[in-house]
Amino acid sequence: xxxxxxxxxxxxxxxxxxxxxxxxxxxxxxxxxxxxxxxxxxxxxxxxxxxxxxxxxxxxxxxxxxxxxxxxxxxxxxxxxxxxxxxxxxxxxxxxxxxxxxxxxxxxxxxxxxxxxxxxxxxxxxxxxxxxxxxxxxxxxxxxxxxxxxxxxxxxxxxxxxxxxxxxxxxxxxxxxxxxxxxxxxxxxxxxxxxxxxxxxxxxxxxxxxxxxxxxxxxxxxxxxxxxxxxxxxxxxxxxxxxxxxxxxxxxxxxxxxxxxxxxx
Length: 265
Hints:
By secondary structure, the protein is mainly α.
């Protein structure tokens, strides 16, 4: 849900440029940190990138939500590889029109932050549960970490929209949710793209159309409301997967701190 579905030419140049610069710096730091560890983790990076790509390409109707599975990726491969996975997935999605090429940098920062924060938060919660319980639940730690992380990243998404003063004439549709009343309607009555988080303003916009601006308060309410259900859903999915992995390959999630290098052979 925190993926930015904004086409090219909408966000201001300074914002997309800042996104790309920060992404380039972080990717460079991640690559430097991971030097010498490529042969061990790159295959797993490819697998988790594919998992993220499938999740982010599948929309759940009618709430217009898709699971990022970025926290799951951060738990399995660590924050550094999680950032690289976010970059790879966002580049592929942008090539299919799932957000513009110019916002790949911003999307990588948002989704990559989920992988990093989720991975570290998972291990913190797992350590706390270990002290409180004789048999700590990795699934519970993963579910809680996912919910908290996605809550934070959703606010990052709202901040990007606010900072960019997005032209809602090209803003993302909200599906069956009516942004004025925050109530759901039959998505097949008037189509899945009938409602937009937009408000008309006096004046003339591009092509002679009325100028429009984002109602950021309504946009935030709509995204947070949809996000609440999405956080629960993705938290449950992540918890189920991590619970299974913890039973069959616990070394993948308990073996070492996220992003740390494998021991020398």
